[in-house]
Structures are given as structure tokens and as C-alpha cells.
Amino acid sequence: MKKRNSNTIWLAGLCGxxxxxxxxxxxxxxxxxxxxxxxLTEKQRLEKDYYFSEALKTYxxxxxxxxQSLFLRVIKIDPGCDACYYQLGNLYFHIGALPQAxxxxxxxxxxxxxxxxxxxxxARFYAVDERYDEASNLYMKLMELRPDLQDITYDLAVLYINxxxxxxxxxxxxxxxxxxxxxxxxxxxxxxxxxxxxxxEEALETLEQLAEAAxxxxxxxxxxxxxxxxxxxxxxxxxFEKALELNADFMPALFGQADYYRRSGRLNIFFDKMKAIYAxxxxxxxxxxxxxxxxxxxxQLSRTFSQQFDTLFMYMRTLPDTLTEPLxxxxxxxxxxxxxxxxxxxxxxSKYPNNYDAWHHYLSILYFVNKWDTLDKYAxxxxxxxxxxxxxxxxxxxxQWQLKNTPRAINLLEKALPLCPVNSPQQIEIYSMLGDFxxxxxxxxxxxxxxxxVLSMDPDNIIVLxxxxxxxxxxxxxxxxxYEMSKKAITFEPNNATYLDTFGWILFQTGRAIEAKAIFRxxxxxxxxxxxxxxxxxxDVLHALGENDLASVYWELSLEKDKNPEVTKKLEQIKLKK
Length: 578
Prior knowledge:
Layout: H1 6-9, H2 42-60, H3 64-77, H4 82-94, H5 98-111, H6 116-128, H7 132-145, H8 150-162, H9 166-180, H10 184-196, H11 200-213, H12 217-229, H13 233-246, H14 251-263, H15 267-279, H16 285-296, H17 299-304, H18 306-316, H19 324-334, H20 338-351, H21 356-368, H22 372-385, H23 390-402, H24 406-416, H25 425-440, H26 444-457, H27 462-475, H28 479-492, H29 497-509, H30 513-525, H31 532-544, H32 548-561, H33 565-577
């Protein structure tokens, strides 16, 4: 049975609380064939130079929407402007739209195959997208071109770490050390790799040798972390103390020492240490935020010690920025202060109106607290500011659907479709939603076409398999196809009451009531009793099998959930027969 849950449509994120909905902004800009690019007229050249210069200025000011429009305008004048594609790749990467960043970066490389930095950018984007083979191949070519550039070697090492290939990563670090010598940072990465590989004694011995040869807060702090990880907290603590003797403000040692008290359960001392760290303006804001983010992944801690967390955030917010405020807002939501969270996210948009993430965070919390009118209003404003981003159209479509304006929701989704890359997750999600929305407005043909689009791109999309199967069953069409899709859905999620209901209903409609009864009994075990529709379906099956007393019980349970007149009629008829 189709039971549309808005949380399966879209769930934007808050740190440690909600899932972040990634951006998918892009424009369908054709990439020029370098051999077919026509020379520019003098007027075109002047226009290109002007708009490109303006685009760079607005980009530097983080006015992403305006910079995007200006770069695209240059491309219309000169489709062969490789620098525009390169800059748009950077722009989309900064706003979190990785597929589009890659697409534009690939275009820049195609237009200028000799540009080293275009390829370097693309390799990094591939790595972030976990396309490790493509990234590795590109880095290897870059290494041949610039064997003197140590960034490539370290990038490759990081790539191999992320690809879970520590042996290769260690080899890269050692190659870099042969060329450039060991920096403290490189030595730290090497130690971590040795530990990953299970070579703990070698890691510890190497680190102790380094610390003895060149005593530093960095090496002592690393020794503190290693011993702490080994469960030798007291020894680890002593090395943090040594590190702080050499550098009283050394950030890793400060946090390591404080965390020792957290792990040992001495939380009063822990929070005293934390207050001192967060009041210390010499400790970089990003480190404070990283550690606080880690703490917020322990919701019980933040709820129990909310007063202490409030104090830490008070220190953090003396230097507000685009990252601190969203973290504070998500903390407030986590401890149940949703109204305050909404205010924080709204204020963040006011402070940083051109910041893409600020808009996403605010719309996320509006969704979370079901403020559909406000979400509709601000999603519309976001569309005006970031016209090429379909995610804001999706947000407004959800608001319109929740406000019972499904035709308007459909219109917004149709506008969003051309803005998404072909076969992208965003396109799949939009078609999935369109399938449901079209069916809601009785456009069965378009509904099924949308579902087919999804399954052509994602054959294992469980939500669509279930919904499409159920709607086919309601139409009494292609029942064999409905059966196969529904069976596939419950294979993936055998304990999902909604999917079991769909499969049971298809069995019942095809004359297999006994088999359907067994499926519905399972559905009851996995939450089916919470759904009026599933209870009604089960009662229909029982009635068909002559189990009228039990059918009456389930129809009565269904009516407790939803006063459906059709169910009332069935119950009255069965009572008359008695």
C-alpha cells in the first residue's frame, strides 16, 4: 500500500539531528567544441572581459547566486571560456553541489587539456566524490608533469587513506619523505597509518624516537593520543602534560587532556577544562567547533549538561560565523528548544543573505518543525536568489504539497527537473515525488511514466517499487508486474508493514486470500496495527475467508484510527448478517 510519509520525500539536515539535503544546482550549458569556437567580435570580447571581471568580484564576496549568473552570461558570449567552467566548478564545490562541480570541472579540462590546475581541481573533486580510480589515475599523470609539487603526493596519500588502502597511502608518505623530508604533519599521518595497519609497536617506537630526537608539543601530544587509544589513559595524560609544558596553548594537547576527564567520568573537571579552552581566544574557532560537533553526537550528554553547553556556545558565539550559528541552532533543536533554533537559523540568513548553507539550514529547521507557510515563503525567496538550484524548488514543492496545493507542487518539481544532471539522485527523487503527486491529482498516465523513469535509473528504489505496485493493483492493471515489484520491495525490507500490506493486498486481489492472510499477520507484528488502512485490508481478507468475528475486530480497530464511512458500512453489514 502507498502510505506517503513526508520524511521519505525530503529531510534536510541539522548536525546530529537531521539529514542534510545536498545541493544540486546546475544549468544546462553546452560545452563548446574547441575546434568549432568562433572568434569573438571586438564588442563580444569587451563584454566577456567586463562580465568575467564582475563575476570574479562577486565570487570573492561569496555572492554565489550573482557570480553564477555572471559566469553563465560569459559562457553565452563565449562558449569556449574554459576559465568560466573552472570557476563554476569551484563555485558549486563551495556551495556543496559536488555533481555539478565535477561536471563544470570536466568541461574546463575538455576545453583546455594542457592546463595543470584544471586537472588538479578535477582530481580533487573526484576524490571527494569517492571516485578513487579516476582520481588516482589523474593524480599519477599530474605527478609525472610536476614531480616537484609535494601537494600531489600528499593528496594521493589522503586519497588512499579514504579509499581504505593504507599500504598505498604509507608508500606515498614515504615517497614524499624521501623527496622533502618528514614534517611533523607527515610524521603524524605516518604514525596513524602504521596503527591502521596494526603495526602498533613500530608506530609507538617511531614516535618515541621522533619525540626523543626533537622534543615538541606535537610529538608529545601524539604520544598522548596513542597511549589513550591503547587504554593507557594515565600514561597518555602524562604526555599531554609534557606537551603543554612546551606549549601551554597547544590545541591537541588541551583537548586531549580535557577528553581524558570526560572518558574517566569526571565531567565536572571536564567542563571546567572545556570552559577554559573555549574562553581562550588563541585556540582556533574551527577546532572548538569540531570538538563541540563530536560532543553533540552524544545527545544524552548535551541534554544532561545543557547549562554547560550553553556556556561553551556563549564563548563560541562571541565570534559568530556561518558555521558556528548553524551548530548552535542544531544544538537548540536537539535539546528541544525548537523555537529558539528557528530564530537562530533565521537570524543567520539575515546576517549572511548570500550564503547558500545559511538558507539550507533555515529551510531545514522550518521543515523539521512543520512550518509550511514560512517554508513556502522562504523557499520562494531562495529560488529568486539561487535560481539554478533545484533543491529549493523541491523544498517549496513539499511546502505546497503539505498545504494541499498539489498542482502547484507538481509545477515546481517540473521546473526543477531540467536543472538536475541526468540520472542524478536529485532527478530520481523528483520523479519519485512526481509519481505520487500525479496520482494524487488523478493523472495516472503521468504517474506511471514518472515511476518508470525512476526504475529505469534506479531499479531497486524500494519506495517506488512499493507505490507503483500498489497503484497498479488499484487500477487492476499489469498484476504480474505489480506482484514482482512488491515482492522485490519486501525482499529488501521484510519487516516493513506498509510494504507487506501492498504485497498482501496484491495477493488478495489475485485470488490468493490464504497467502495474503499470512502476509497480513506479519504486517500486524511490524506496526500494521497503527494504520487504519492496513487494518481494513486485513479485515477484508479475513471476511473473504469466512472469519467474520475476527474481521469485525479489525474493522473496529480501523475505525478507532480513522472514521472511514466505507469501513463503518462494512461493519454494519456484517452485524446484520448475524
